[in-house]
Amino acid sequence: MIINKKRRAATAKIIKLSALAICIFTGIRAPAVADDIQFNTDVLDVKDRQNIDLSRFSRRGYIMPGEYTFKIKINQNELEEQTVMVYASEKDKTVSVPCFTPDMVEKFGFKEAYQKKVTPWHNGECLDVTALPGVTVTPDTGENVLTVSVPQAYMEYITDNWVPPSMWDNGIPGLLADYNLNAQSRHNETGSGGDDNTLSGNGTFGANFGPWRARADWQTNYQNSSDDDNGSGQKSWDWSRFYLYRALPALKAKLTLGEDYVNSDLFDSFRFTGGSLISDDNMLPPNLRGYAPEVTGVAKTNAKVTISQQGRVIYESQVAAGPFAIQDLNSAVAGTLDVRVQEQDGSVQEYKVNTANIPYLTRPGTVRYKFFAGQPTDYDHHSQGNTFGTGEFSWGISNGWSLYGGMVSSSKYLALAVGVGRDLMALGALAFDVTRSDAKLEGEHRHGQSYRVSYSKRFDDTGSQVTFAGYRFSEKDFMSFNDYLSYRADYGDYMQSKEMYTITFNQQFEKLGISAYLNYSHQTYWNSPTEDRYSLSLSRYFDIGRWKNINASLTAYRNKFNGENDDGMYLSLSIPWGDSGTLGLNSSYNGDNNSHNLSYYGRLKNGDNYRVAAGGTDDGGSLSGYYDHYGDMAEVTGNVDYQHGQYSSAGMSLRGGMTATLQGAALHRSNTTGGTRMLLDTGDAANIPVRGYSNVTKTNRFGKAVITEVNNYSKNSLSIDINNLPENAESTSSVVQATLTEGAIGYRKFNVVTGLKAMAVIRLADGSFPPFGASVSNAQNQEVGIVNDDGQAWLSGLKPGAALKVSWDGDVQCEVTLPENLAVQTQTGNLLLPCQHGAAQL
User: Fold this and answer.
1) Where would one find the signal peptide in this protein (predicted)?
2) Distance, CA of 354 to CA of 348 (rounded, Å)
């Protein structure tokens, strides 16, 4: 009952404090001058009307001269928090003006012509952006924000999710270590084979300094089987790549030094050591950007999917049984990818996916380019040939026509390519190119040509889209540079490509509610068997009575190699069940075994998801389970499978990382190994929930959290989940923004106050009280309360023994010290806090 009375009293005091806000909005008298505001204090219920200080509210935008830490906001775009000096105006000493340095103004996003019109002041140290008509600067000391309002005509091109290069953030220096570990154990119950245990992983170590990113990629594999004679197993650890890179915003390009892969739109990919300069579509506005590959397939059981290119693991993850689609590959990946699906029953699917791009078209008047130079190397970092150079370009000649071409040159190899692309508007986009190679081999001289036609079109009227369709024919004596290197390394033994077809097709049948997806690739060789891969998916949503959004889907595939077919089909019916669950009926058919399962998929409130299934196969009954946990320090996935009389297995994966900077460090989940991330700082406030695009992460005991769900060169908004703040925490700002360059470690700090809350009475040494409207702030200059009548103030973020400053008349006047037994005193009544003059001046 006592507690309830105290709460009511505190509430009454808070209501009384709101009188200050009422006077500002309802008791304002006509200003004497443009920036002066006078308040009608008659509306205030204050006993001592002579003891009122509203001076800090009386001049619009006025703050005391001094040094402040502000987050600068340009219209709706935010820059990082930084130190800003505030000086008295050279024209009117009663007016304060923030000092924007030339380095700051360069990041505001002004067009060059208007940036030259801002005027210097304070001995050239500052620039006056208000010299441009219509530009205003508004400080908000409560939220530590400086808002600069700029007419859009002065600004470079800006959209809701993209800002110009001048606003990009290279982040702060730091170290990072990302990892992806997968463990699997299988017990064979048939007696014909032993138990198998595997541990594999890949990741990246890195360091950031200024705009430069240093990275070292690694991968490891350990296999142990009870059938091994010596029981030692197979172990490997490989450093797959060492490299440096940085963004060159002025060129809209990326510079890379070290070990890299030639990712070309015209030529085959190969590994090399040297340097590259590539125009980066990611630096363009989103509507002008390119394409990233997608890998699809069907897992017969809970399985591990590994995607690699020329031996280097690009992506590895465990997936639940059924169709899967991997869409988060790096858009820089190009060429042919090797996909390996390792099932829990020991079987393996292997196939190739061609990441062929859409036609090489470029917007009118612009040029896209790629340059590579160095020495070809193999996976073991050994030289594989002579120094080479390659370059390619695409030039937008006019509105619809593009000319493109390129060259690969080495001492005994030369390839030239030229092509033309045409935007056919309503009919899509078409491109044709021809490549001629000339290779000098031991005892012979080979030269031949390769022809390619590609097409892309989205049919809005019919709801269909051909994302890529292509045909390529290579003459028998044509050799790509990769073929040439393989010929030299393997003494003439390499696969000579002949014909290649590939198509990806989407179709929406809106009236029937059916979605269709088709992927087909066909590859023939002059000296090897044909490879074919078909994949077809059909899906339909419908309602039956009170059951809504029921989904039925069919996925069928065929992988054909060396005259052998690997056929399969997956049928699924899913029914929403409860608030966040789905009941499923699944059937899988393939040449080895058929299975039928009843499953339940659920999602928990914390974002975790799970799947349990029971059913049968041709060999007997089966049970399986899958669980995915989004932890603050790592994403953890676990799965178990049991096949009666055949095997039992279990798997687990960990995906996470560590980021360390001078501003703090944290363990975290990992999105793309070695990729861009944001370090969020809530001061000494621990367990604060922060959010990127989707999942919530809580700050660690040091008030730090790292979010990896951020995009390069796009505006990212990150926020505090204010609905789930701890009871002793308050935040004056809940959203921050950042546009980061690739690989950056961004840093943003939230203004969070933590501690006890209490009603206090502040009394001066002579027995009087600070004036009504005086400000109370902590050591971090965060305002924790405003003085009301008779020295009363509702204070928050209180810590035992801490010192608080009390300010009025534009200066710190005295300081109070909180008692060590603060928690006890806040339970017994109002705090009595003596305010000592001069203590705060130390």
Assistant:
1) 1-34
2) 20
Instruction: Give yes or no: residues 641 and 711 share one domain.
Output: yes
The reply to whether 205 falls in a domain is yes
- CA 67/CA 87 separation, integer angstroms: 9
Can you spell out the DSSP letters for 727-756?
TTEEES--EEEEEB-TT-EEEEE--EEESE
Cβ atoms of 523 and 499 closer than 8 Å: yes
Q: How far is CA 52 from the centre of its chain?
A: 50
What CATH number is attached to the domain comprising 716? 2.60.40.2610
Beta strand segments in 355-443, E: 367-376, 388-396, 401-410, 413-423, 429-441
| 99 lies in the same domain as 125 | yes
pLDDT at site 543 = 85
Taking a C-beta distance cutoff of 8 angstroms, is the pair 738, 718 a contact? yes
Yes or no: say if 328 and 314 are a contact pair by the CB < 8 Å rule. no
Question: At which of 137, 156, 175 does a domain end?
Answer: 156
Residue 466 covered by a domain = no
pLDDT over 90 (residue 176): yes
pLDDT band of residue 618 (cuts 50, 70, 90) is confident
Give the up-direction half-sphere exposure of residue 615: CA atoms within 13 A in the CB hemisphere.
21
What are the Cα distances from residue 404, in Å, to 280, 334, 358? Answer: 17, 18, 14
* Phi and psi at residue 697, to the nearest 5°: -125, 140
Last residue of a domain, one of 131, 156, 181: 156
pTM higher than 0.85 = no
Phi, psi of 19 (to 5 degrees): -60, -30
Residues 75 and 170 in one domain: no
